[in-house]
């Protein structure tokens, strides 16, 4: 196992995860956590990736970072009391669900913890906004929005038309975006992101500057890879699927064919805008997703990705905002990603299509 400094931010934890992740081949059946790690006692039969998602789930459910339970000396060590307690808790939850809820996932860490290490026991009073109580801002009854077409095919067709139409989209052989990534820690990090249309390939590079250097991830049509200050790591299994999907999605431009079991799930509010929601399962990752399209413009405004862990699920939200038309194709210029405890925002400054890219533009740095 390579040494991995346990980070406080999601980005650092994901980089750690890449460094300690399973080394399975993409197509081979995934090894279990018991086969992959040194000291997994309870969740040993879970697949390695659902085990790691369970670690993230625990982190989010307790509102802590990985180092709350794990010591710098090694992930397998049991020297922190919180880790030993967590193992007992996993057993408790398994027994509770087996005995009381017919083996269903009725109780998870979240049921009690709700983002805190010590679950709340008393119920606190909530102050109501006084202006609402005295009627100054009493809410107006909201008219139910009318959705022109509630079939998944109709909603996706409207989205493609809103982007500029299939013909305009297909004229772009590749797209290069540049701008700044704003991190939750307050850093402003220049980035470039490039996509090629066929075959779908993708590269996303971030320049953290002195001390940290350049981070990049990519998918060259075959191999998914990650490269950071700890070196180069090929990505397998679920991580590879995510990167392959990033290459195809091009910020929401090629949604059709990427999902199975698409179904209309009604309308809701996304901020102040009405959105039309489709649910489905992404073919490349197997993750359940919710796709929200702006009712007025038809454009994709949010993607919610559900990650199933061995004993609970969590979601990640992507928001696509401030679309602008370049060469007749609409592209979002503010793209944000939020996990339960971290967030980043990409502010796109330049968008170019059909750029003369070098032949190895999407290959891992080792080959460049
Ligand atoms: C609430 C406590 C807790 C948090 C938070 C937590 N873990 Fe764990 N971790 C555990 C427990 C407990 C085990 C052992 C599980 C078992 O025995 O089935 C474990 C095992 C592991 C292992 C296996 C090590 C080995 O070789 O045996 C890795 C790797 C790991 N965790 C990574 C992480 C990462 C990365 C994070 C943050 C995203 C994280 N953990 C957050 C409690 C925690
Ligand atoms: C039925 C409610 C319940 C569920 C479900 C539950 N916990 Fe707890 N957990 C508690 C309570 C209550 C405490 C505090 C107990 C104490 O102070 O001794 C606690 C304490 C802990 C602590 C010690 C926190 C500290 O003070 O450092 C850890 C770690 C922990 N839980 C992890 C988990 C994990 C991981 C899960 C999911 C696998 C989980 N818990 C599920 C009720 C629950």
Can you describe what's shown?
The chain is globular and about 60 Å long. Strand 11 and strand 12 form a beta hairpin. The chain has nine helices and 13 strands. Strands 6-5-4-3-2-1-13-12-11-10-9-8-7 form a 13-stranded antiparallel β-sheet. The protein has helices spanning 10-20, 33-36, 48-62, 81-100, 109-113, 130-133, 152-163, 166-171, 237-249, and strands at residues 174-183, 188-196, 201-207, 214-219, 224-228, 231-235, 259-270, 273-282, 288-294, 300-309, 312-326, 329-339, 342-353. The chain folds into two domains: 10-113, Photosynthetic Reaction Center, subunit C, domain 2 (Orthogonal Bundle); 152-363, Clam (outer membrane lipoprotein receptor (LolB), chain A). The chain is α+β, with helices and mostly antiparallel strands and 368 residues long. Helix content is 24%, strand content 32%. The model is unreliable at 1-27 (pLDDT under 50). One heme C (HEC) binds at residues 58, 62, 82, 85-86, 89-90, 93, 107, 109, 111-113, 117-119, 311.
Helix count, DSSP H or I runs of 4 or more residues: 9
**Beta-strand residue percentage:** 25-35%
According to CATH, the homologous superfamily of the largest domain is: Lipoprotein localisation LolA/LolB/LppX
Shape: globular
CATH architectural label of the largest domain: Clam
Number of strands: 13
Structural class, from helix and strand content?
A: alpha+beta
